[in-house]
Specification:
Helix content: 25-40%
Strand content: 25-35%
Number of strands: 12
CATH architecture of the largest domain: 2-Layer Sandwich
Largest sheet: 6 strands, mixed
CATH class of the largest domain: Alpha Beta
Strand order of the largest sheet: 5-4-1-2-3-6
């Protein structure tokens, strides 16, 4: 198959992360900029709970790459960061010894490969901290507990080529969420068949969500056990509800699961939900608009992980499905 052609568009990612204590209270900031006009297209910030500075830096990179894929996966992308470690490791010049770094770098390389497969490209540039002030400010917002996902547009009637410092504040698009409601990061855990794999599930989830993330789960014994263990690991109390069982009468999507999902969307934040295969597919079919006759077409295994993200503008995307590496 011939390689995909890129879009010809150029985009710049500016990313940063920090940890007050290292490890300590951590967060990341990232933005995507049009280098031709200087316009900022996306601004992102998210608290990470307790994490190291390097984890926060990599998390900022990942957020920026995902934002580019949402905007234009065929673009030519320049990543600018003040983290020498991340830039050198992603450029292949430094070895990655720490397991957390190796996992995050692998995820970043997968995202870069997705851009490359779409005909785009990604390269990395180290910049001094004073030239990364916008991303640094966003990461400090995140460490203060603020979650940001802003889609920015060029002000109506504004000529191309305007200097970035002159961008009007009206360029910020309105949020589809009520004021104060954060985007939703939902990690769906399909209940395993046996309790013996629960520790592996807990370890995998801990690597994907911050401490303090909410946990909900179905009321059957095994799902409740998994939810309880996850809640203990994250330092929270699990909310157990039959709505997440995925066992309502009827075929296809479970309306109760969908109602529970929409309730989470209205609240936002990071949530882990332990449910059945039908529960996982009920959420996925809602996000993807899957027709009834294709409801069971997606493969999901017991103990697998699936991630859904709902942004401030109301759009939703599936970050990954049926992740099972932790079960091997």
């Amino acid at each position: 198959m011939p390689a995909s052609r890129g879009s010809g568009r150029r985009l710049v990612i500016e990313a940063d992360g920090g940890s007050r204590g290292n490890p300590g209270v951590a967060g990341y900031g990232a933005l995507v900029r049009d280098p031709t006009t200087g316009s900022v297209l996306v601004e992102l910030a998210e608290p990470l709970g307790q994490a190291s500075n390097n984890v926060a830096e990599y998390s900022g990179l990942l957020a920026g790459l995902r934002a580019v894929i949402d905007l234009d996966p065929g673009a030519s992308v320049r990543v600018r960061m003040d983290s020498k470690l991340v830039v050198e490791q992603m450029s292949g010049r430094w070895k990655i010894k720490h397991e957390d770094m190796r996992r995050l770098a692998l995820e970043a390389r997968d995202l870069c490969a997705e851009i490359s497969d779409a005909g785009g490209s990604v390269d990395f540039e180290w910049i001094p901290r004073e030239k990364n002030k916008d991303a640094d400010a966003l990461s400090n917002d995140a460490m203060d507990g603020k979650s940001v996902h802003r889609i920015l547009t060029q002000a109506e009637g504004e000529p191309d080529g305007q200097d970035a410092d002159d961008l009007a504040p009206e360029a910020v698009s309105a949020s589809a969420f009520p004021e104060g409601v954060r985007p939703l990061r939902l990690l769906l855990v399909q209940a395993p068949l046996h309790a013996a794999v629960t520790p592996r599930v807990v370890t995998a989830v801990r690597g994907l969500v911050p401490s303090g993330a909410a946990v909900v789960g179905a009321g059957d014994a095994l799902a409740e056990k998994v939810a309880s263990d996850l809640a203990d690991a994250l330092g929270v109390h699990a909310e157990i509800a039959d709505a997440w069982s995925g066992q309502a009468p009827g075929d296809g999507a479970d309306a109760r699961v969908r109602t529970a999902y929409h309730s989470l969307v209205a609240t936002g934040g990071t949530v882990v939900a332990v449910t059945s295969r039908r529960g996982v597919l009920s959420v996925l079919s809602e996000v993807l608009g899957t027709p009834v006759e294709r409801f069971w077409a997606l493969a999901t295994a017991p103990g697998s992980l699936t991630a859904v993200e709902v942004w401030e503008d109301g759009s939703a995307s599936v970050a990954f499905t049926n992740r099972t590496a932790h079960l091997a």
